[in-house]
Description:
Oligomer: single chain
Largest sheet: 7 strands, mixed
Structural class: alpha/beta
Helix content: 40-55%
Amino acid sequence: MKRSLVLIVSFILLLSAAAVACSQRPPLPEQRAPAGGQTEPASSAKAAWEQEWERTLAAARKEGSVTFNSGSGYTAEWRRAFSEAFSQKYSITVDFVVGPTGDTIARLVKEQQNKVYNADVTMMSSGYVRVLEDLLQPFEPALILPEVTDRRNWWRGEYTWLDPDRKTMFAFREAVVPTWVINTDLVKPGELKSWNDLLEPKWKGRLLLNDPTLSGAGQQNMTILAYRIKDWDYIRALLRQEPDVQRDNNLMMQWVARAKYPFVISPRNAVVYEFMQAGAPLAYVTPAEGTYTSVGDGIIGLLQHSPHPNAARVFINFFLSKEGQTIFARNNGYQSLRVDVPTDFLEQATVRQPGGKYFSTLDRDYLENDLRLREEVVKLFQAYLKK
């Protein structure tokens, strides 16, 4: 009996010692569930592009604004719509500097030579490739959003570049250029079919032509007419028809809409689009010889020494997104090089069609001869205008 009692007391003392030892161990860390009661996924790290976008956007908002050189041929409605959408989305202001492409480029060159850096992003045309190549920075590293960097979203499945090195001059549109715009009350259907029709005596003194001495649609149309569609003899024959050469696209479209002239050659499409939207009796006509597709001044670039480098990156990513390109196309009438941008609101004569007879101004041989062709066109028309 005494032996059993001793064993019981010993067992009780052993349990007490174990309890004391357990009470002296440090507590286990508290396990807290994430907010909402959900278990946190194993890999919560953001994609590299997302991290870069967030850093760029935060820095851009501190910069507050971006300065963008826009061609004067694009509509004020586009600038308003784009600026509102961009500012609401990112809380960054767009400062538009609007002017003729030639004047804008001359100003940029002068500013950069004097180390004055006001602009971040600029539009340009193919005629200024050599002038601007030393003023621009590499463009592709600034592209961040997957919908912009995914080549499948772009025509031909690739980016379209204008500079030979394919680094700095990014084309965002390549539209079909309808050669003539007629007043449907004055020109009968089928009355104008070929460039040869313009040489008929009845059209002498009645031709209205967008000035080819200036960089733009008029000049480019004449270079292609001489280079590919017809020849220099045809240009001289056209001048013998005594065309009225004008520079003001708004004025030319007013004259055609009000029946002062039956049609105009090579008008600026954005201006035609505005008049058509307003209900003017106008229609596009493409000659039987075909027409061309052109990026025109639908080229964008990032300037070196940009005063708002992060805001500039945000700007070009939004501008080249589906939303940004849809705003541009809807308000200017030009088809985007993005294949997912709708075209139902565009005049179908300006939309690339399967099997269409088009000459591309991106033809490398044409680009190599572009400057020489422009100089010849300018000489011919300057001589004509002096008379």
